[in-house]
Every structure is written in structure tokens, then in C-alpha cells.
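thoughts on both lines:
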Amino acid sequence: QNKLIAMVANLPIGIAYCITFKPYHMEHHRYQGHDLVDTDLPSQWEGYFITNTAMGKIDHTFRKAVFMFCQIFAYAFRPMLTKPELVPKDGWIAANWVVQLTFDGVMVAWLGPKVMLYFLLSTFFAGSIHPTAGHFLAEHYVMEGQVETYSYYGPLNRVAYNVGYHNEHHDFPNIAWSSLPKVRKIAPEYYDHLPQCKSWTACILRYIFDDSISPYSRVKRGTKKA
């Protein structure tokens, strides 16, 4: 049932992705911070091109801004390039593509080819320098001390399926997004004292303009065989 709902939610993205996403996300939960296993970690080449080869603060800032503008590509392709063996090869991935391509075909026949441009550009900009895209950074980039996971409790959760309740999500990954606020309400003593992200937009700006923040601003553990 969850996979079928995911396919419906996938439709406006324009490209089948939800079935491919799950195994990588589960590895992220099981082995958070383990290099070459948790594909949420920026890769070595990202650190090299964004930070290691930057020629001063202005260049570093520019490179981080370019990365933010195009970060959806990193999150889409990094997992499959790092661990291609996790790409599902079953009936569900086939169903995902059949459902998606059927929907795309119907929409093009009804509204014309420009509808696909709308879907794809919407997906791109939603994962680019957009307020809700700040969650990609806010969740695990180390902004305060050595804390590696942050929650955001602001109003954008209403349009982002409560993804801001990220400590709660990692503690109880099987709880539905709609019930994550209840976790904090039931056990505030475990969450209210933790460092929080107050603004996804501010997080994006800090990532770009704070020279101390880079792809290396993540807690990384030793390589672990999954």
C-alpha cells in the first residue's frame, strides 16, 4: 500500500524515482554517516571540486551557490553512482516506470508537451535554491558543535510532510509523517533541548556564505559493509 501511495506522489515529479529511493534511504537510516554506505553523505569529488580546489572565499561561496542551485542532481544521481547494486530490479521498479510513463503520456496528450517541461522544471527548482530545499542541508549538516541531526519545527512542515521533524523521524522511522509532531509532544524532554534549525532559508544562506560550512560539514564514520 505504501509503495502504491508513493507512486501516486511520484507522478508530478515526471520521472519514476520512488521505488529506487527507498533502499538508499533505508541504508541512510541503518548506517548514517558511514562513508560509501550512507549515500546522503557528499562524495569525495564533491568536496574536492567545491572546497579543496576553491581559490579563496569568494570562489568557495560561488561554488557552494552553484551546488545549491543544482543539488537535486547530486541527490538523484549520487546514490546510484556510489552504490548501483542497490537499484531495485523487480516488478515494483517496472510498475513505477509503467505508471509514471502512462501518466506522463496522458498529460502530454491532454495538455501538450509543455506540461512535461513544467513538471521537470518544478522538480528542479523545488530541489534548488528554494526554501523547502533547505531541509537537505538542515537535516544533517553540522551547524552547531558536533550535533549531526537537527529538527525544524517551522510552518514549512505543512507543505513538506513534516520532514522537519527529523530527529523524531530517525528515532522512529516507521511512524507516519502525519504523526511525527505527536512524538515530540509525547516526549518533549528528549527533543526540546536539542539544537534546532529555525529556518530552512537561513540554513541555505549560511551554507553558501559561511566559509566554515562545506561538503565536509558532516559527521563521517569509517566505511562499513552493509
Observations:
- The chain is about 55% helix and 0% strand.
- The first helix runs from residue 2 to 10.
- The radius of gyration is 18 Å.
- The chain has a mean pLDDT of 93.
